[in-house]
Amino acid sequence: MSFDAVGKRIPRVEGPEKVTGAAQYVADLKLPGMLVGKVLRSPYPHARILRIDTSKAAGVPGVKAVITAEDTPKIRWGAFIKDLYPLAVGKVRYVGDEVAAVAATTEDAAREALGLIEVEYEPLPAILIPQDAVKEGAILIHDDIPGNLVLDKLIHRGDVDEGFRQADVVVEGNFKSPLQYHAWIEPIGSIARWSPTGKLLLYMNTQTLFMARQRIAYALGIGIGDVRIIQPHVGAGFGGKSCDDNNAIVCSLLAKRAGRPVKLINAREDEFLASRPRVPSNIFMRLGFTRDGHVIAKETDVLNDNGAYSAKAPATTRVTALRHDIMYRHVNVRTRVRLAYTNNIPTGAFRGFGNPAGHWAVESLMDMAAVELGIDPAELRLINGVERGDVTVHGNIVRSCALKECVRRAVDLSDWNRKKADKVPHRGIGLATMVHVSGRRHFGDFDGASAIVKVNEDGKVFIMSGEGDTGQGAFTVFCQIAAEELGVPVSDVSISAGDTDMTTFCQGNYASRLTYIGGNAVRRAAAACKRQILEQAAQMLMASPEALRIKDGKVYIEGSPEKFVTVGQAAWARLYRRGGEPIVGFGAFDPPSEMQDQDLVGNESGAYTFGCQIAEVEVDPETGKVDVVNFVAVNDAGQVINPTLAEGQQEGALGQGIGWSLTEGLVFEDGQPMNPNFHEYKLPVAQDMPRLKTDFVGDPEPTGPFGAKGLGEPGMVPTGPAIANAVFDAVGVRIDTLPLSAEKVYRALQAKAQRKRSRAKGG
Amino acid sequence: MSFDAVGKRIPRVEGPEKVTGAAQYVADLKLPGMLVGKVLRSPYPHARILRIDTSKAAGVPGVKAVITAEDTPKIRWGAFIKDLYPLAVGKVRYVGDEVAAVAATTEDAAREALGLIEVEYEPLPAILIPQDAVKEGAILIHDDIPGNLVLDKLIHRGDVDEGFRQADVVVEGNFKSPLQYHAWIEPIGSIARWSPTGKLLLYMNTQTLFMARQRIAYALGIGIGDVRIIQPHVGAGFGGKSCDDNNAIVCSLLAKRAGRPVKLINAREDEFLASRPRVPSNIFMRLGFTRDGHVIAKETDVLNDNGAYSAKAPATTRVTALRHDIMYRHVNVRTRVRLAYTNNIPTGAFRGFGNPAGHWAVESLMDMAAVELGIDPAELRLINGVERGDVTVHGNIVRSCALKECVRRAVDLSDWNRKKADKVPHRGIGLATMVHVSGRRHFGDFDGASAIVKVNEDGKVFIMSGEGDTGQGAFTVFCQIAAEELGVPVSDVSISAGDTDMTTFCQGNYASRLTYIGGNAVRRAAAACKRQILEQAAQMLMASPEALRIKDGKVYIEGSPEKFVTVGQAAWARLYRRGGEPIVGFGAFDPPSEMQDQDLVGNESGAYTFGCQIAEVEVDPETGKVDVVNFVAVNDAGQVINPTLAEGQQEGALGQGIGWSLTEGLVFEDGQPMNPNFHEYKLPVAQDMPRLKTDFVGDPEPTGPFGAKGLGEPGMVPTGPAIANAVFDAVGVRIDTLPLSAEKVYRALQAKAQRKRSRAKGG
Fold it and tell me: Which of A639, B14, B691, B725 is in the most buried spot, having the most CB atoms within 10 Å?
């Protein structure tokens, strides 16, 4: 297909605002009379609150509100399980739990007041690992959740035991991955203002405006229509700004109490303590293969750490357990999936939504199996990979799929065969593949979006979308989609900020759904406008609407482009006439997916994406330090709408993937975070980035807008195993626990040398 | 008809914001880095600009921009005639003409800089009255407008000369009315901010957002889509905030030049000098009657003062000349209408849009005729008044009309017959009737509106309307209309601010069009939502949509209200389902009116309103001071949507009507305004207000929303002649020039006494 706007390297529409500093983020906004808010957090992982005395705090000059649970409606809320109070009631359950909050005219007064709130705690025994949480007789973190289990599910497809009996080669392992903080450039924050009639206006950097509206209204005990959320520019979300934490709710409660607007912006420490980082994962997995490399049995057992309250972890943990089953042609699958409360920070969504942890296990095992089977790892994926038209054991319908093309292209781009053949000491190359979704259905059997497009009387197009943009470029992609549908230059299209009052319902930024779902809604709204333009132009050109084409903003009879009316002329004529009206189109799209049933069967997404990554590493044998020197990432995201933005997604994702794989991970001792700051929590920096080749070999998705699928998350899904497989290729050690820190690799190398010495001695 | 929301005394939806001080007007808004703007105005009514030196001004610390015409695109713009530069080019044409402007970090710096701009003028002879402007050989105010005539038209229906030949009684007179300043509580103002990509954001207190967008874009030489206008709360418009003056354009030019946001708020003096006050009018009129009181000939000759630039005066002057012809069953009408440039302040739209001036003449003459004919003035209106179904000589189609009911009700409420019979010295009672429009078609053969209504997933309704509200209560009326259409409580409905990006095209607040036209658009959008609700509820209730009713937010099968689903449940179910979507409806309405043709024939409005006012006055014979002691106003506005707001419109209009009739009027000497301040420009205050009885006897308008018509302007259309007729009834003097100041009445009483003495002496 040939496109005019789609597939083009259009600069970001909001770029100039950002690079000139004109863009306003929530922290930049000022409302008249606005106060500064601050939150007092629990210093204990588990404790009873015996007494809170806020009187001294309230006496600090400039302090306008001090609130505790007693000042709140005490409603428990949450994305899937309603277990979280805005301010702790009776007990605190993790170090960071919100206990009280203040609003004051200055930051200093707020801080001083915070220090003067007296809280008397009775410390309780804490559960710090999920394995302890599920033990018989373990103390209960929430009285109403028996066994501390948020999720406990066993599913079985085919005959797994028989599969393993028939298997010629079986590989297995325990794979762990760490708690990763989103480390966005902009912390979570909000500004709340109540109108005299009780309507709450929130400026917040949420990535899911309408879901935030629903949850905040619920937690505050008010109606959805009583909340308006406006999204300013957002400095990234990655899943962690989807309103699972208490920031906006506490901010709203403070503003209500103070009777003035309140701004509550997380400090970095608030983020490390009380945002909703990536779920730390524990997976046992076993794969059985026939001699010729076909996988015929798979067993997975996941036990994840939910933390003290349940955000998105129940959903991400299901993904950890099952998503990867879509990638290969499995028949016999048995999966146990458990998620346990602990007295750790509540965990949630982070780019990949549990999928990187699952891939960490399966793609490590695939590599191990390749070694055992003597089959090239790339070849092993080609033997087992799904193809267009497949329906998986869990009911996933694969309408488009270029998994194998991704593998082949990655092999080419990485010079895989030559590098596998010409081994260089301490250098290795590793491959991993991935499957991901474009949207996922798990909120009330709806995963849709809607949009309004209007064409001004001068032909300029304006999109009103509630999806918002968190910096990934969704606005630009939507403008391109509308431009393509309408046949106008992208420069003639602009788009609104997200605003729950002024736009129509959208689920928001998660699950790589925006291009595919939000884009389809925009396309449909644009198509509705196009029909109106054609109807009008048809009268002007004395032709039937069906005979017309629009290109470069001109409407003409197909084949006769020299005689035309512009879109602007048609829009003007449609408005300024007897019975006239502006050109306005509404569009909605809910993908052809379905809710998983009780047995977790169901086509969770309308479109699946695939990819292959190949990492080339160099391991320092003296220190164990892993350097990723070359990296190839090939994705099947269907038709790519904007290659520059798509590459940007892969580049950013790779940074996060490398961090998760090599250096990151929040570490706790006795429930206390040991590295809640950027000094000790090691993010990769520019010098840690490899040379990257990225490419897209999309199979156009029939249900996608112009064939597009999602691509926000996939870029880090297979990164961990690709690097680990390369480390194994380099130095022959296989590490099952991310991150692959220098220390771990060093110890593994020492152990390997020790074994070698022992064997040498023994032999 | 029985209604649930319509016709109810619902408190204004934006009232709590306003009375608590939370409402933000444009002067309240602050943008980061915002500067203060100020304008340098011409001190001469007519002069050539020889030289402008801004160098000293630019050197004032804090000054960020000083601009003259040389810094502008020099594009002439205007509502009907493009004759106005944002900053004067070459010549100034009135005292107040914009010459230069500055933007500075402080008000003081801006003021200081203004004083340092050196302008060398060569004064030119000035034309100060329209009679001089149209004289043979008069100097030209605009080189390209020959004869200084903006408008010169002669129209003729029937045979007027024959009509006057057959007339038994002929009355005639010259009727003048003054230049009236809107005297709103909030002056004109704007804040302009340019984005790095060249998009202009304007916060401005305009009453016509989309027309302002079009004009400002034109004047700045940019696209319509490059301008976004947001309407904050507005402290009234009355026609004078419909973007006919340079405020927002100069503000935008300053912001562009400074590269920072600029706020430009008129001082009161700016308003008196350079807003667009009511056109001062000169009308000669003659009416011929048969002995039994039928009017059979009418001649009108209007010569109005346009001022130096042409805003809305061409349109209001046509109204002055012709609108009143709709009120009586005229056959023979001859009208000459002229509008001349002068070197006075440009004049424009003010409540009634030229219609009060026309009524001033015709309703004075009707009273004079009643005396001559010996027919009661009320009876004379009943003899001649139009009725439902009439089509006038100008093609006006009267679909609904309760003119005669208004007269009868006003007669009852005022105790007219008794008061006419029992004459009290120096007390008098006078009556006048009126006709007005609900919207008027004069912009590109379109007078429509559009709106989007959405129903949140909790059933709360939100209206996105671009009409805006200038304080008259349009938002409340729209909420009532949507509530009535949808069958939900008004408290479940809220509405957006006006915003040209986020709402769809509307013509805005003028010509009493909002309830009738904007209301119809809202109703249609709500009806579209209702269809979606019924469709969904039908599935839930297992019934056909046609069988359902909605009341109090509940949907049920007609006749079985006990079994229901709520609108919220239906909205939730429609969204959260496979293929779901939110409830969103678009509606547009363009009334069944037509543009007047070259001969000014055409049904200018979709619906006409009628009214009768009766004033009772007491005249102080010592001073001539007129006190209006009792007042009755009865209006036919069709079905009244909100009686409280309707009464408020009548009350406010009466204040302005009394001011125009008795005390107001901007006075000039040699082109210089003599009373440009509230000390010398006398507004009526609370103690000047009479006891008012107001009532509505609406004939439901078949094309109106629930039968409604407009009622914003009518309340002051017949006030002047009602009072003047009462003065005549009180003391026997007839004054033809408004205002009826104590001085004028005193002099007339003196002259009358002199005549009496002369007659007594002579006799």
Answer: B725
Kindly tell me if the per-residue pLDDT of A543 is higher than 90: yes
Spans of all domains in chain B: 15-22+448-589, 31-126+185-236+241-274, 127-181+276-375, 401-437+604-763
- Contact between A261 and A192 (Cβ < 8 Å): yes
Which residues numbered 498-557 in A keep a CB inside 8 Å of some CB on B?
Answer: 499, 501-505
Whole-angstrom Cα distance, residue A232 to residue A498? Answer: 8
Comparing CB atoms, the residue among B199, B584, B588 nearest residue A586 is B584
Give the architecture (CATH level 2) of A281-442+596-754.
2-Layer Sandwich (3.30)
Across the interface, whether the CB atoms of B223 and A16 are under 8 A apart is answered no
Q: What is the pLDDT of residue B763?
A: 52
CB–CB of A450 and B581 under 8 A? yes
Query: Is the CB of B494 less than 8 angstroms away from the CB of A225?
Result: yes
State how far the Cα of A533 lies from the Cα of A488, in Å rounded to an integer.
12
Q: Provide the 3-class DSSP secondary structure of residue B732.
A: coil
| Residue-level length of chain A | 763
- The per-residue pLDDT for range B280-292, each reduced to its tens digit, is 999 999 999 999 9
> How far is it, in rounded angstroms, from Cα B310 to Cα B706?
37
Average pLDDT, chain A: 97
Quote the minimal CA–CA distance from B283 to chain A in Å.
33
Q: Could you tell me which CATH class the domain B31-126+185-236+241-274 is placed in? A: alpha beta
> In whole angstroms, what is the distance from residue A601 CA to residue A606 CA?
14
- Confidence at residue A763, expressed as pLDDT on a 0 to 100 scale: 52
CATH class of B401-437+604-763: alpha beta
Contact A452 B584 (CB under 8 A): yes
Domain covering A31-124+193-235+241-270, topology: Aldehyde Oxidoreductase; domain 3 (3.90.1170)
Selection from A760, A503, A480, A512 nearest residue A636 by Cα? A512
Instruction: Round to whole Å and give the CA distance between A380 and B48.
Output: 88
Chain B, residues 126-145, CB within 8 A of chain A, namely none
Quote the pLDDT of residue A443. 85
**CATH class in words for B15-22+448-589:** alpha beta
Crossing angle, helix A355-373 and helix A719-731, to 10 degrees? 30
Q: Tell me if domain B15-22+448-589 and domain B127-181+276-375 are identical in fold.
A: yes
Residue in chain A closest to B13 (alpha carbons) equals A197
Mean pLDDT of B294-312: 97
Residue A577 C-alpha, separation from nearest chain B C-alpha, in angstroms? 5
| Residue A137 CA from chain centroid, whole number | 35
A223 touches chain B (CB under 8 A): yes
Class of the B127-181+276-375 domain?
A: alpha beta
pLDDT tens digits, one per residue of B67-113: 999 999 999 999 999 999 999 999 999 999 999 999 999 999 999 99
Amino acid at A742: A
Coil, strand or helix: which one is B92?
strand
